[in-house]
Amino acid sequence: MKNIVILSAFCASSFALAACGGGTNTNVNVRTNSNGSTMGNAVNTVSNTASNAANSVANTATSLTMPSPEDFMKDAADGGMAEVEMGKLALKNAQDPEVKKFAQMMIDDHSKANTELKALAAKKNVTLPTDLGTYKSDLDELGKLKGPDFDHEYVESMVDDHENDVAAFEKQASSSSDADVKAFANKCLPVLKKHLEAIKAIQAKMK
Length: 207
What we know:
Layout: H1 2-20, H2 37-65, H3 69-93, H4 97-123, H5 135-142, H6 147-175, H7 179-206
């Protein structure tokens, strides 16, 4: 975020310099014809400079906010393993039958996606994490709950996780620099959106 602010400030300064001619000469005599074409050309030049700089900032911001294909695969592996383990925990600790049904869907769908991701990572020579990483503490806390308390926390967690998943996969599906990663993200997106829709329906019933 700090880099984006610096870039924006830099470009704003560039716009000012371009518009003012760099502030080095305020006594330049410019001849124009009767239809003012010289002034029109100057305005177009400044406009084009501003547009190009703005596009450069936008492209830089996108590169800073979107993970690389390798980082995306590692994050997806972490999240996918967590979904499976939390699903297994829900089968034991949940009370609501709909929550248990959703949990089984998590185990089935994410286990399949995890297998496909491992094959993709092997093809790309990317080493995926083998533990839950930052998700371990979440799983431990969730494991302390049972019944309605578990149902509520699990559902809230699944809504948050799948909203983040859909956003991350959409970015890679539309803009990934790796064609294979892009295809993987596109394949998973409909399933993740189905999960998000299902868990939001369960959440709505609980309120």
